[in-house]
Amino acid sequence: MSVSGTSANGSSTRSGAGAGPDHELLLVRRGPRSGAHVITAVHSTVLGPALGGCRLWRYENLDAAIADALRLAGAMTLKASAAGLALGGGKSVIFAPPALALDGQARDGLLADFAESLELLDGMYITAEDVGTTPHDMAALSRYSSHVTGAPTRDGGSGDPGEYTAAGVYAALRACARHRFSSPDMDGRSVAVVGVGRVGEPLARRLAAAGASLVLADLDESKHALARELGARWLSPQEALRAGVDVVCPCALGGSIDEQLCGELRAKVICGSANNQLADDRLADALADRGVLYAPDFIVNAGGLISVAAEVEGRDRAGVITAIAEIEDVLAGVIARSQRSGVTPLGAALALARERIERARALTGADGGERMPGWSTAPSRASAAARSR
Length: 389
Prior knowledge:
Blueprint: E1 2-4, E2 25-30, E3 37-44, E4 50-57, H1 62-82, E5 88-95, H2 104-121, E6 125-129, H3 135-141, H4 162-181, E7 190-194, H5 200-209, E8 213-217, H6 224-230, E9 233-234, H7 237-241, E10 247-250, H8 259-264, E11 269-270, H9 283-289, E12 293-294, H10 297-300, H11 303-313, H12 317-325, H13 327-341, H14 345-364, H15 381-387
Parallel strand pairs: 4-5, 4-6, 7-8, 7-10, 8-9, 10-11, 11-12
Antiparallel strand pairs: 1-2, 2-3, 3-5
Helix pairs in contact: 1-14, 4-5, 4-11, 4-13, 11-12, 13-14
């Protein structure tokens, strides 16, 4: 087991509270049951306990898994801060060896190993589902640890956050459409949704209901059925990213907008749920120079975090729906700020998130770990319900 208070740095422009290796903690353990490495990165607890999902993925090597955890943890700090939540940023990665099964008893062992890491951190970090994990996994984890959110609703949790994330993306799309096309109405707009999984599918359904003309894309060919159902055109992901549409919504894994694609985009707006959509944050300037509005990912995809944060903060479902709808106003404010200050929307969003963190740091006089009012490591309602079964 290793515990460190510093980390390697991913993209310095995305390091939440400031540039440089500023993560508070990195925990890497080899699970005694599974043999898999379990990695937890805590970027910041200045605003409150770190909350972020657990990603189960077969990375190329351990270094890649650690780098992903560190990068995603920093993004969670920004997301929580910009959303006005009393939470910090963290992320976990379970690095599964190629030969290890991911179901049955093997999966139970992976989750039990991960739960031990949660308990070691004693509330500094709270987990939720992410790529490769599910609300059912969160229910299983909550048998071992109280620091879990996002169990199924029947267990008292908030369930799959995908629908809430999609609602937030739709709210952000309205802000983008108002700015670029002079109306928030999506009726008649052409939109390419790239990745139609747990977020992309409900987003596509919302857009279809609103009258948008859709292009859908996914590596999973079975999703072609959704395109037929919604009357959408089906393209490969690479074709969809380059399609002649008003808006592209990247809703799969990050890094899809690289330098080559930046020069080939035909859409006027990029607004999707994927984390870290830009292969390099400096591409935000190149997109702006071409007249493309890039809506910062950590503003756009905050709906899922707002949903699971409700278990920690005690917010009811009505409050969650209201907060997610407000993403439209938050993004509109970011766009207006970018115009006033002469920076990209990404630069304006980073400034917004960092200012809130700096105000909290000034209040506490600490770099993290000092508990703000409302900080609590008590079990979430979902965890308590699951543990009482």
